[in-house]
Each structure stands twice: as C-alpha cells, then as structure tokens.
C-alpha cells in the first residue's frame, strides 16, 4: 500500500511539473502583440530585407517559447518565417485550416482593412500534436504590401 501511495504522489508531482513546463513554453496574447509590434519597429530600423532575414534566422530573439514572427505579402507570398524556413518563397493565400477556413486570406483582410487585429483558426499544435484553436496577431507593415504575424495557441 505504501508503494502505491508513493507512486500516486510521484505521478501527481510529475503532472504538476509538466503543466508548469507547458505553461512556460506557450506565449501569451500580450507577448505575441509585443513581439509583432517590436517586429514592425525592427523593419523600420533596419529595412525589410535585413529584418526578414533576422525573423527567419534560427535561434534569434524573434523566436521565444512557441512564438515566432512571420511575414506574408498581400498576394500571399511568405517572405519570412521564424518556425519553418521552407515556407519562405511559398504562396499561402489558398491555405486552409482544419475547418476549411482560408485563414491567410483572413489575415490579409484584417491587415488591409483594420491595420491590426486577431485572426482565429484551427492548427496542429506541435507540442500536443492535436488540432487546437490558434490566434494570430497581425499588423500591416507601413509602406510595404504585407503584414507581420505572431500566433498563440489557446
């Protein structure tokens, strides 16, 4: 009986630690907005070409927890992507989420019509491997036909 109690206590402790660890790897909505706003400032400071290379470079300040910066032009072409360099140069305008929503087109519409805002869609969470609700904060890039995006899992 003592071994069973010890096993249960250890299992509960491990579950608590895993929950804390997961919370530490997920960025918050406020962190996503801050990263997107900082990305716009970086573009203004160093120019689009250098900034886009910085956003795409692995291990830099533009990836934090599960947050990363990506940039998409209004024609759907990806010009920077902090999580998947293979997406740079790909046109994603037709991409749909698990529910059939054209979420890149929605992000473009938000950036063009409002200047900034949140786009919600379903996406595979790389940690849980399950389809989760994701929200991306997008900001139109002043003087450039595209937007910066940083997303969070809910």
Automatic annotation (TrEMBL):
UniProt membrane topology term: Multi-pass membrane protein
Assigned keywords, A-Z: Cell membrane, Membrane, Transmembrane, Transmembrane helix
Keyword presence, Transmembrane: yes
Domain Single Cache: 18-105
Coiled coil regions in record: none
Main localization, broad class: membrane
GO CC terms in record: plasma membrane
Subcellular location: Cell membrane
One Pfam assignment: sCache_2
Species in which this protein is naturally found: mine drainage metagenome
Protein name: Methyl-accepting chemotaxis protein 4
InterPro entries named among the record's database cross-references: sCache_2 (IPR033480)
Keyword Glycoprotein among record annotations: no
């Amino acid at each position: 009986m003592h071994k069973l109690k010890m096993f249960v206590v250890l299992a509960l402790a491990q579950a608590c630690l895993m929950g804390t660890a997961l919370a530490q790897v997920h960025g918050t909505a406020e962190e996503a907005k801050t990263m997107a706003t900082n990305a716009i400032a970086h573009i203004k400071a160093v120019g689009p070409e250098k900034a886009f290379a910085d956003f795409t470079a692995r291990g830099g300040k533009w990836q934090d927890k599960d947050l990363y910066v990506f940039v998409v032009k209004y024609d759907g072409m990806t010009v920077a992507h902090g999580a998947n360099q293979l997406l740079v140069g790909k046109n994603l305008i037709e991409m749909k989420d698990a529910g059939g929503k054209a979420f890149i087109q929605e992000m473009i519409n938000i950036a063009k019509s409002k200047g900034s805002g949140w786009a919600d869609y379903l996406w595979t969470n790389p940690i849980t491997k399950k389809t989760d609700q994701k929200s991306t904060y997008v900001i139109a890039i002043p003087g450039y036909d595209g937007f910066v995006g940083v997303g969070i899992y809910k």
